Amino acid sequence: MTRPGYAFSNASEQSAAHHDALAELLDRQSHESITDVLDPAGRRCLDVGAGAGSIAGWLADRAGEVLATDVAPRRIPDRPGLTVRQHDIVTGDPLGHFDLVHARLLLGHLPRRAAALRQMVHALAPGGVLITGDFTVAPGAFVLSAPDEGTADVLSRYLTAHVRALTALGYDNDWPHRAPAAFEAAGLTDVHFRSYATGWRGGGPGCRLLRAGIPQLRPALSAHGLTDEDMSATVAALGDPRVLLNGFLFVQTSGRAPA
């Protein structure tokens, strides 16, 4: 999706690569988190900030009714059982009530995340479940293996610039760990928290995701110390299978509305 304060655009040339990498990297974990707390069969489901619609499409094969929203929904394909709507969860009109509300890699990026969370909670039917997932930088060294010190150095400097660039746009690296308390403060019950991480090998989906983001973040990365030469070296390194990175933690929180 794209909006002031959100770094990545569905209109960019890199959008297809960005969403393909996300689907390969995270869809299995998203499927598991949904089916662990709710059988979507026959349910009314809402996917907020649906991106290219991989989760919304998966739900459409299983649920009774699925609404996918995004401020720029141009990447979501038409398919039976799926309604697509242009909508901003912070400022848009209420969407109704749903048995499942899902949002992935959304709240951590939104400067007005408290308002977005409030609107998603309001969209829950009695007993409905909210599931969100966001990245946070994993503790420890980012570069686990690289072919040489120069490659390790540029990747480490890239991560610092990447986080600073996103933070300047409203990203909150600590949000995923505050989400459970925010869910409970919003009145949700049965709150669960899980995290998932793997190493990201050069050329794999995690590294392809980072590569797709570099052109979109280029001005901000430059403002935070990366030269054009650094960015070119980073792109090359992210495609090198000799590189192994400590992949970002994907942190999911779920909670249930009172029945």
CATH 4th-level superfamily: Vaccinia Virus protein VP39
| The CATH topology | Rossmann fold
Order of helices and strands: HEHEEEHEEHHEEHHEE
The number of helical elements comes to: 7
Given this structure, which CATH class is correct?
Alpha Beta
Give a description of the structure.
Helix 1 (15-37) packs across helix 6 (205-223), helix 4 crosses helix 6 (205-223) and helix 6 packs antiparallel against helix 7. The chain has helices at 15-37, 54-60, 113-122, 149-168, 175-185, 205-223, 228-238; strands at 44-48, 65-70, 82-86, 98-104, 124-136, 143-145, 189-196, 199-201, 244-246, 249-256. With 259 residues, the chain is an alpha/beta fold. The protein is built from seven helices and ten strands. Strands 3-2-1-4-5-10-7 form a seven-stranded mixed sheet, with helices on both faces. A three-stranded antiparallel sheet has the order 6-9-8. The mean pLDDT is 95. Strand 4 (98-104), helix 3 (113-122) and strand 5 (124-136) form a beta-alpha-beta unit. The radius of gyration is 18 Å and the shape is globular. The two termini are 32 Å apart. It has a single domain, classed as Vaccinia Virus protein VP39 (Rossmann fold), CATH 3.40.50. It comes from Paractinoplanes ferrugineus. This is Methyltransferase.
Identify the notable features of this structure and list them briefly:
alpha/beta, 10 strands, 3-stranded antiparallel beta sheet, 7 helices, Rossmann fold, 259 residues
